[in-house]
Amino acid sequence: MRFEDWEPLYLEIIRDMGYDRARDEESARVLSGIISGMPPSRRASIRRLEELVRDRDVLVCGNAPTLKGELEEVQPNDFCIIAADGAAAVLMDKGIVPHIIVTDLDGDVEAETEASRMGAVMVVHGHGDNIPVISSIVPKLCNVVGSTQAVPLANVHNFGGFTDGDRCVFLARELGASAIVLVGFDFTDPHVNAIKKKKLEWARKLIALVIG
């Protein structure tokens, strides 16, 4: 996605959420530096992501409480599976290693690290609030690709999207998925706090831009 197309939405989001663009950009730079210093064998490429996604049906797994039940209603082997952060642990508990995990590292990092060692591509997102965890966790991961919601860098990409869940959807579209199926999404969860409610509303709006 061209940043010029994404930037108006990004500016609206950070105004609404009260986020600091400079901190997002700093996080992207930190993430870029860490990835640059990793051995090539520990990094993944956009080409690898495209090989997984292009012309395939993609199952995007959110981390709503409904995920376990909804997984029983699909055949995961029929899809390229993209997990949004905490959904990775649910999948791993069921013996399913996601092909891709989109994460800002505030979920079950242990499960995500194990999945990365088993071949999952880790699309790690840098934003203003997670610089310390990026610095401590990313060097332990395998198959890492960087992402940002701010201006992209050479090895930190902007596929579009704001929350882990809608970033999965934007990534799938950007990389040429033939179809996108959602499981484990609840945009009206009454049990979340006010900030999470705002994030879910943005996720709903952004996903609707991609798949209606």
Short description:
The chain has 212 residues and is of the alpha/beta class. The chain contains 9 helices and 7 strands; from the N terminus they run H-H-H-E-H-E-H-E-H-E-H-E-E-H-E-H.
Flag low-confidence runs: none
Mean pLDDT: 97
Q: How are the strands of the largest sheet arranged?
A: 6-5-4-3-2-1-7
Query: End-to-end span in angstroms?
Result: 18 Å
Fraction in beta strands = 15-25%
Q: How many DSSP-defined strands?
A: 7
Order of helices and strands: HHHEHEHEHEHEEHEH
Helix content: 40-55%
- How many domains? The number is 1
Helical stretch tally: 9
Describe the protein in words:
This protein is of the alpha/beta class. It has one domain. It is built from nine helices and seven strands; from the N terminus they run αααβαβαβαβαββαβα. It has helices at residues 3-17, 21-36, 46-53, 67-71, 87-93, 109-117, 131-137, 164-174, 194-211; strands at 57-61, 80-84, 100-103, 121-126, 144-148, 156-157, 179-183. The chain has a seven-stranded parallel beta sheet, with helices on both faces. α8 (164-174) runs parallel beside α9 (194-211). It is globular and about 45 Å long. It starts with a helix and ends with a helix.
From the structure above, extract its key features:
212 residues; alpha/beta; seven-stranded parallel sheet; 9 helices; 7 strands; 15% strand; globular
What's the layout of helices and strands?
Blueprint: H1 3-17, H2 21-36, H3 46-53, E1 57-61, H4 67-71, E2 80-84, H5 87-93, E3 100-103, H6 109-117, E4 121-126, H7 131-137, E5 144-148, E6 156-157, H8 164-174, E7 179-183, H9 194-211
Parallel strand pairs: 1-2, 1-7, 2-3, 3-4, 4-5, 5-6
